[in-house]
Amino acid sequence: MGSATTERLIPLAATLISLILIHSTPAISSLASPTSYEVLDDNNFPAGLLPDGISSYDLNITTGQFSVHFNRTCRFSLQNSYHLKYKPTFNGYISNGKLSSLKGVYVRVFLVWREIEEIVRREDDLVFSMRISSYVFPIDYFEERPQCQCVLKCGGGQASKET
Ligand SMILES: *[C@@H]1O[C@H](CO)[C@@H](O)[C@H](O)[C@H]1NC(C)=O
Ligand SMILES: *[C@@H]1O[C@H](CO)[C@@H](O)[C@H](O)[C@H]1NC(C)=O
Predict the structure, then answer these.
(1) Ligand 1 center from residue 55 Cα (angstroms)
(2) Contacts of 38 (CB under 8 A, 6+ apart)
(3) 119 phi and psi angles, rounded to 5 deg
(4) If you average pLDDT over every residue of the chain, what do you get?
(5) Residue 154 has what pLDDT?
(6) Ligand 2 pocket check for 61: Cβ under 6 Å
(7) Residue spans per domain, the chain
(8) For ligand 2, atom 1, which residue shows the shortest CA distance?
C-alpha cells in the first residue's frame, strides 16, 4: 500500500460524497411535501391551472388519484373571456400530461356550466374535454396563478346565483 494511492483516494471520496449530498438534498426536501403546484409541474402542467387559495390536497402517488380542497367554490376567468369554476373539493387522476376522471371542474359555455372530464397537455396547448366537445387553450393562459373571484360577496356570505 503506497501512500500515494491513499492520497489520491481521499479527494476522490470527498468529491463523491459531496456529489451525493448535492444531488440528494433537493430530492429529499421535495419528497417531504411537494405543493400541489409542484405536483402539477412534475406532471408537465403549468402551475396556473390551479388558482391561489388551496387549503389542502391529497395525492396517492401510486395511482395518481388526487383531491384538492378550497374553502369555497372558486371561479376565475381566462383572458377575461372564458370562465372556469372549481368546486370546494374536486378530484381525479393525474399522470404525465393528463388529468382524467375529473369531478368538480367546470367551464362556462354560452352561460351554461359544463363539467370537464379530462385535461390533456398537447405540446403548447391544454385540451379541456367535456362529454361532447372540447376547448383548446394555449398554455400561456395558465402561466400565472389566477385568484379566485368573489361572486358578489367574499367571505361569510353565500355567493348568490351560483349555478
Ligand atoms: C380555510 O379554512 C380554514 C379553516 O376554517 C382556515 O384555517 C384556512 O386559513 C382557510 N384557508 C384559506 C386559504 O382561506
Ligand atoms: C393508493 O391507492 C392504492 C389503490 O387503491 C391503495 O392500495 C393504496 O393504499 C393507496 N395509497 C395511499 C397512500 O393511500
Answers:
(1) 6
(2) 30
(3) -125, 120
(4) 80
(5) 58
(6) no
(7) 1-32, 36-157
(8) 60
Residue 133 corresponds to which cell in the numbers above?
366537445
Residue closest by Cα to atom 14 of ligand 2: 60
Rg (Cα) of the chain, in Å, rounded?
22
Topology annotation, domain 36-157: at5g01610, DUF538 DOMAIN (2.30.240)
Residue whose Cα lies nearest atom 11 of ligand 2: it is 60
Q: Cite the beta strand spans of the chain per DSSP E.
A: 54-59, 65-70, 74-78, 82-95, 98-109, 112-115, 118-122, 125-129, 134-138
The answer to whether 77 touches 84, Cβ cutoff 8 Å, is yes
pLDDT digit string, tens, across residues 10-42: 554 554 444 444 444 444 444 457 888 899 999
Instruction: Give the CA angle between residues 106, 103, 118 to the nearest 5°.
Output: 75
Among the listed residues 128, 124, 100, 125, the one whose alpha carbon sits nearest the alpha carbon of residue 113: 128
Cβ of residue 96 lying under 6 Å from some atom of ligand 2: no
Our separate counts of H helices and E strands in the chain read: 2, 9
